[in-house]
Give the backbone structure.
Amino acid sequence: MTAKKRKFDWIKSSGSLLPGGDWFVEFFTPGELHAHRALKVLETSSTAFQEAALIKTHTFGKVLVLDGETQSSQYDEAFYHESLVYPALLAHRAPRTALILGGGEGATARDILNDRGIGRVVMADIDYNILRFAEKHLDTWHRGSFSDPRLRLLAQDAKKFVFNTAQKFDLVYSDLPSPVEGGPAYSLYTLEFYRRMKKIMSPGSVFTVQAGPGTPLQFELHPAIYNTLRKVFRFVGSYSAFIPSYDMPWTFLYCTDDPAKAPARLDAAALDRAARTRLKRPLRFSDGETITGAFSLPKYYRDRIKASRAVITEARPMFFSTSQH
């Protein structure tokens, strides 16, 4: 006896998958996709390093797309940027200097400059045209951070800056695009680079890096970066935040040699006190409870990290993009 062939209205053919109109589609695997209804292409920029587009979407407002990947959206960019910036910023009792590797939108700088005590931020991004694009079109992201006198904006290769500067920094943030083969960022995810970068970090400093997707479908990059950084720093902690416009959790790594700032020592009440006394504006996404809770990864991910032996080096780089198909 054979089962009757049934048709379900919730199973779509490829021809009827999306409603009418234009859609920005990212395939995470050959069988999984995420689509934004694209109402209008607002601006585009083609540079020697990447292709950028700013589109207006139905649900997430303006969305910045770099090389076919969702970079951030007007609706929830604070979820990403606050997650990147504030664990280290609030864990450090008195940061004065910060370095941003990449960070073209200006939102990472915006959140660092939210701390009254910050005196100097250096932002090194290789793509001058993207910086101009961001300053002109992403005002709801950067909120004037490009014109803050405490920010020194360098349109240059962040790797060259790290290898040549004599400056020291209390906080360092890697807000780089994915390590796409042939792209400008992949060599800044290597063991050799991280070892050199550590030489420009002050005693008691903290390094934070965006470390790729936190979905089981794409969890190769994060353990590799974790293993690489464990060879450089005494304490390395994985944490994550769900970013709705990405349709997945996104991961970060928090690194320090200072036992007092180790991830296991972070205290929600102390982080909240630091936010109340030092920040000029309240946060939308983060607080002490959010930050400390973000470090509690499910067992599955901890097991994946433990099982990985990958280390990223100049001889063996890792290439990755969320839009893989």
